[in-house]
Amino acid sequence: MIKLHNLHKSYPIGKDSLHVLKGLDLHIREGEFVSIMGSSGSGKSTLLNIVGLLDTHDSGDYFLNGQRIENLNEKKAAILRNKFLGFVFQSFNLINYKNALENVALPLYYKGIGRKERQVTALQYLEKVGLKERAYHLPSELSGGEKQRVAIARALVTNPKVVLADEPTGALDSTTSHSVMELLKEINREGMTVFVITHEEDIAEETDRIVRLRDGVIISDKRVIKKAIV
Fold first, then answer.
1. How many CB atoms lie within 10 A of CB 219?
2. How far from 150 is each of 124, 133, 140, 175, CA to CA, in Å?
3. DSSP code of 228?
4. 53 lies in a domain?
5. What pLDDT, in 10s, does the model give residues 137-148?
């Protein structure tokens, strides 16, 4: 589903450049639940932006669903994002003056789907995340956990191949974080590829595979051994 080979990315800083990703090799298969771990400056956000077609790599190869990603203009990148990717952010990125239903329906608007169908579909996804009864509430009337559930419903509404979650529990307490991770697990069990960026060890442990980054290189890539419940 996601295949990176010898991926490099640098950013100019004055007359110099900062080499952020240094020859990454990573293969995430369809249906995997993977976390990318690393401290600030490790390159994990840059990696997410490249995988999410929000930024471009300098050299190396990136394949998304078998398609080589190169020389995309913004229009083509937007089409691919809308077709394959759903995003969940730490800060939720909800539109404050739109209610939960309108926020979830927004990606369908960009796909050219009619208003009535958008609302019906959006309501189905709010029900999926347990928030049907909060459909007409504004973000200011929702708790942090409810906002993140709305954001997850919005990510799912276009039925993407991959959900990219950038620190999805970073603004939440531990109990709410656990419920959000349970929701992501449920999505993954239904066959969706889930790609989580986190710096929290306990969150990474809830995924099936942990890839650790340090200074732009992968230092480990391991399957999570699940503890048996006694």
1. 12
2. 12, 12, 12, 17
3. P
4. no
5. 999 999 988 998
Instruction: Match 């709305």 to its residue by tokens.
Output: 150
Tell me: the pLDDT tens digits for 184-212? 998 899 899 999 999 889 999 999 999 99
| 193-198/33-37 β-pairing | parallel
Strand order from edge to edge, sheet including 209-214: 85-89, 162-166, 193-198, 33-37, 209-214, 217-223
Give the chain's domain count. Answer: 1
Does 229 fall in a domain?
A: no
HEC readout, 150-209: HHHHHHHCCCCCEEEEECCCCCCCHHHHHHHHHHHHHHHHCCCEEEEEECCHHHHCCCCE
CATH of the domain at 109: 3.40.50.300
Is position 18 within any domain?
A: no
Q: Do the beta carbons of residue 36 and residue 197 sit within 8 Å?
A: yes
3-state secondary structure of 88: strand
SS3 content of the chain, % helix, strand, coil (to 5): 35, 30, 35
Residue 129 lies in a domain: yes
